[in-house]
Specification:
The complex is a heterodimer of chains A (297) and B (354). By secondary structure, chain A is an alpha/beta fold. Chain A has two domains: 2-261, Rossmann fold; 263-297. Helix content of chain A is 44%, strand content 23%. In chain A, the strands form three sheets. Chain A has a six-stranded mixed β-sheet with strand order 6-9-10-3-11-12, sandwiched between helices. Chain A has a four-stranded antiparallel β-sheet with strand order 2-1-4-5, covered by helices on one side. In chain A, α9 (254-262) packs across α11 (281-296). Chain A is globular and about 65 Å long. In chain B, β1 and β2 (196-199) form a beta hairpin. Chain B starts with 7 loop residues before the first helix and ends with a helix. Chain B has a two-stranded antiparallel sheet. The chains are: A alpha/beta (297), B mainly alpha (354). The structure holds adenosine-5'-diphosphate (ADP) and magnesium ion.
Chain lengths: 297, 354
């Protein structure tokens, strides 16, 4: 009797242990190619609950490819992707969602012509009734949408308006609120601030922090180090499909991050280009400063 | 650096616009409905014909108009849903005839009860829809090409098989086969309302519009239909079963084709195998006039019904007004053009951000 109990406790510990010691999500040497194009190679990354992992890189660096693998839109063909310590390959976004991974894409987060509340619950609609008379619980979905959005600090008069009428920042926020409401453990944001002005970018960054504070592991994709640094806990830098650095916040400053991303040579080149165009002194100084900080870093 | 600063590229952009959306008036909500343009058009057309041809208002005339509308409207139900789902179907006109031919040929050739033929015709119709859908999904070709191909193939099959089996361009009469009378009662009878005979298709049509509206607005599937038509990638990314939804829509169109095919068969007792060609456009026109966007994601079943009603009014109204029916097609084209322009405006309003 006693031994059995001990055995049971041991089993339980064994089951619990990976969850305690392992990270929420881990990538080890992950790679992906599209035909002959190698989009991603040998990427390591860790996502923890209540932490923001930033993925930075220029256009074509492989950021979208990386998060599409995590979100189940593509499958990796190299390396290991594990969730709660066990290796997985996600076959579809639905499978990823069921595993607690929700993605918010820059352009395909929402269906513009559909009302906000329908977008909020799309793919996970609430229903009442049974069989043939099963119908959408419209009132409840509208109420929840309104409530969740106001909890996130978005005050909308009318959840019936097409979501396309919202500003880009608000749309991102609706998508984030949706992921939070549906119990996502990992929230992926692909360049949520890319098309936004300063003020709206700030709004989106605030929601990233709110999602983090609710205990989600956030993966924040951007090519803007000034957006990444204030909210990020760790930073993965990609270039041409490869990882060129993986830092925790204490290891790097925003200036170093900027310099790392652009690369000193490129900034110098940029400065040269600007010089040739002429008449943009302010921007020129900025680019030169960047190139210098790279040289000293 | 802990505050959020602008990147150089953003510096040159104008500051963010106000995030709030202006308050909507009740009128603008009404104007935002997909079918509003069609409704205004229908009312205008009704008043117009009532003035120029008073006989138009006679109950018997209205019953005739409604019957004409129903024969378009039954198909327009499925075609509207499909169009909202982002696809369209050029094979509907001949698929109606395929269904009618299947029912009559099966009953006649095997000497089976008519209802067996009717049931198998339903299978044929759903299968045509399924095949259209699965080819669309597998080949990723636009529905224009896929259904143009099935339109041509069905046209050929209708003519070829009818002649090969029955030896004629029309299917043999099934009036004497068991079950004919009861099937006629279901698909092609009239209901007497206050002395006016109203064709049963009018009631079938209304029922189908109500069911389709319910599905569209009050079920998950309806949500999915709007989503796959509005933004297929976004729909897939949030877990909507895009493939099933699209194939289901083509099968729903198949179902509507079966209903109309059975009416065509039992209104008489045989079918001309060369019929139906061109009707697919009438169904699409009804859906578009009714406010369904050709590009998908927007529209209503009611709109398609109003579109069909406009069609019915114009078609018969010209006769009641004793005009030359040659003008009908011109008129229809004009309606289509106006409706499409209105639709574009409506879509822009709905989509415009800020
Ligand atoms: N579906 C695809 N087919 C072929 N090549 C692709 C595909 N998606 C991305 N790529 C290529 O992979 C590389 C990485 O792209 P992506 O992950 O979108 O970069 P990022 O999001 O960082 O701009 C690019 O060279 C791009 O052209
Ligand atoms: Mg990208």
């Amino acid at each position: 009797m006693k031994t059995r109990k001990n055995k049971k406790t041991e089993d339980l510990l064994e089951k619990l242990e990976p969850k305690i010691s392992d990270n929420l999500l881990t990538l080890k040497g992950v790679g992906k190619h599209y035909g002959s194009i190698i989009a991603l190679r040998g990427v390591d990354m860790v996502v923890d609950p209540g932490k923001v992992t930033c993925v930075l890189g220029d256009n074509g660096a492989g950021k979208s490819t990386l998060i599409k693998i995590i979100a189940g839109l593509h499958q990796h063909d190299e390396g290991e992707f594990s969730l709660h310590g066990s290796a997985i390959k996600l076959k579809s976004p639905r499978v990823a969602l069921d595993a607690g991974i929700a993605a918010v894409y820059q352009d395909l987060a929402v269906v513009p012509l559909m009302p906000i509340w329908r977008n909020f619950f799309l793919g996970s609609e609430l229903t009442t009734g049974v069989g043939l008379f099963k119908k959408l619980d419209v009132q409840k979905m509208k109420d929840i949408t309104k409530q969740e959005l106001s909890d996130m600090g978005i005050d909308l008069r009318d959840v019936e308006q097409p979501i396309g009428q919202l500003s880009g920042g608000e749309r991102q926020c609706v998508a984030i609120a949706r992921a939070v409401y549906f119990g996502a453990k990992v929230l992926i944001l692909d360049e949520p601030t890319a098309a936004l002005g300063v003020k709206q970018s700030g709004v989106v960054l605030r929601y990233i922090l709110q999602a983090r504070d609710r205990g989600l592991g956030v993966i924040f994709i951007t090519h803007n180090p000034h957006h990444a640094y204030p909210v990020g806990d760790s930073f993965l830098l990609l270039k041409r499909g490869r990882s060129i650095g993986y830092y925790s916040k204490s290891e790097i400053t925003v200036e170093e991050l900027t310099a790392q991303m652009a690369g000193g040579a490129e900034l110098a080149e940029l400065a040269h280009e600007l010089e040739q165009l002429g008449g943009h002194d302010e921007e020129l100084a900025e680019a030169e400063a960047g190139a210098n900080s790279q040289a000293t870093a | 650096m802990s505050s959020i600063t602008a990147s150089p590229s953003q510096k040159r952009k104008s500051p963010a616009l106000d995030e709030r959306v202006g308050k909507k008036s009740a009128l603008s909500i009404l104007l935002g409905r997909p079918e509003i343009g069609a409704l205004v058009g229908a009312i205008a057309l009704f008043v117009f014909f009532a003035v120029v041809a008073p006989v138009f208002l006679a109950p018997a005339s209205l019953a005739t108009v409604l019957y004409g509308a129903s024969t378009i409207g039954i198909m327009a139900v499925g075609v509207s849903l499909l169009m909202i789902g982002g696809e369209f179907d050029l094979s509907t006109g001949v698929a109606v005839i395929s269904s009618a031919l299947s029912a009559s040929m099966i009953s006649w050739y095997f000497g089976l009860n008519v209802w067996v033929g009717i049931a198998l015709a339903l299978v044929v119709s759903l299968l045509i829809g399924f095949i259209n859908g699965i080819i669309l999904i597998k080949t990723k070709l636009p529905s224009f090409i896929v259904t143009l191909a099935s339109f041509l193939m069905l046209t050929g099959l209708n003519l070829g098989l009818t002649r090969a089996i029955g030896g004629s361009v029309s299917s043999p009469s099934i009036a004497d086969i068991e079950g004919f009378q009861s099937a006629k009662a279901v698909f092609a009878s009239s209901v007497n309302i206050a002395g006016i005979d109203v064709k049963i298709t009018v009631f079938i049509w209304i029922a189908m519009v109500i069911i389709a509206s319910w599905i569209l607005l009050r079920t998950k599937i309806g949500n999915w239909i709007f989503a796959v038509g509005g933004d297929e990638k976004a729909a897939r990314a949030v877990g909507v079963p895009v493939v099933r939804t699209k194939i289901g829509l083509f099968m729903a169109v198949g179902f509507c084709g079966w209903v109309l095919g059975m009416h065509n068969l039992f209104a008489f007792d045989s079918v001309q195998s060369g019929e139906g060609i061109g009707n697919e456009f009438l169904y699409i026109i009804a859906a578009v006039i009714g406010g369904c966007l050709l590009t998908g994601g927007y529209g209503s079943a009611i709109g398609g019904a109003i579109g069909a009603f406009i069609f019915g009014m114009a078609n018969k109204g010209i006769v009641y007004a004793e005009w030359n029916p040659d003008w009908f097609k011109f008129f229809l084209g004009l309606m289509l053009l106006l409706a499409t322009v209105v639709n574009i405006v409506v879509k822009k309003r709905a989509e415009s951000s800020k």
